[in-house]
Amino acid sequence: MSGKLQKVAYKPVGLLLGVAAGAIAGAVFKEVWKLAVGEDDAPTPDDEERGWGEVLAAAAISGAIFSVVRAAVQRGGAVGVRKVTGSWPD
Questions:
Q1: 20 to each of 13, 51, 64, 71, how far by Cα in Å?
Q2: What per-residue confidence (pLDDT) applies to 78?
Q3: Which pLDDT tens digit goes with each residue over 32-53?
Q4: Any idea where the domains of the chain sit in the sequence?
Q5: Helices (runs of H) and strands (runs of E) counted in the chain
Q6: How many other CB atoms are found less than 10 A from the CB of residue 27?
Q7: Model's pTM, two decimal places?
């Protein structure tokens, strides 16, 4: 498969993987927060009842989990593309 065709073919796969990564990361974060704090809902930036420390800690944990899950899913997708096409996606 030519590089240009492969890139076009991989776009929808990459988008689906991104959506899946977001859903997985959200579920993982919810479980981590529940285990760490014992609450079902993490604070949001506009939650007046929560302090700065709790809001920023939740954001940092959420961001770290999202980044790791996204990288793992994207890497897995790239490895899958290489197995199917014989070349690494751009």
A1: 10, 31, 16, 12
A2: 86
A3: 999 999 999 999 999 999 999 9
A4: 11-85
A5: 2, 0
A6: 12
A7: 0.80
